[in-house]
Predict the 3D structure of the following.
Amino acid sequence: RVRVLFLNAKNMLIRDELMSEGSTSEAAIYAREVIKRALDLSASSLILVHNHPSGDPSPSKQDIAVTRDIVEAGKRLGIQVHDHVIIGARGHASLRSLGLI
């Protein structure tokens, strides 16, 4: 599952939404859909969150690529991506903490 936490200018939660449900190996998420929803909600920033059913929270190349796409799309429209957190049975990973965004 991929969830997006949409935040206002004071970083207060506007909405927590399920953006995608996938299989055991992938869940589709599109930068256009995420940014469009942020604009619809007048969000100033967002946090992406998804799980890895494998249990390993390490980000995949696709996780990194889609996050960077969302970051770039958001920059053009004044929407900041604070983080992308991946949750697995063995813990969690923050793309921001790992220096990937």
Observations:
- The helical segments are 31-40, 61-76.
- The first strand starts at residue 2 and ends at 7.
- The mean pLDDT is 93.
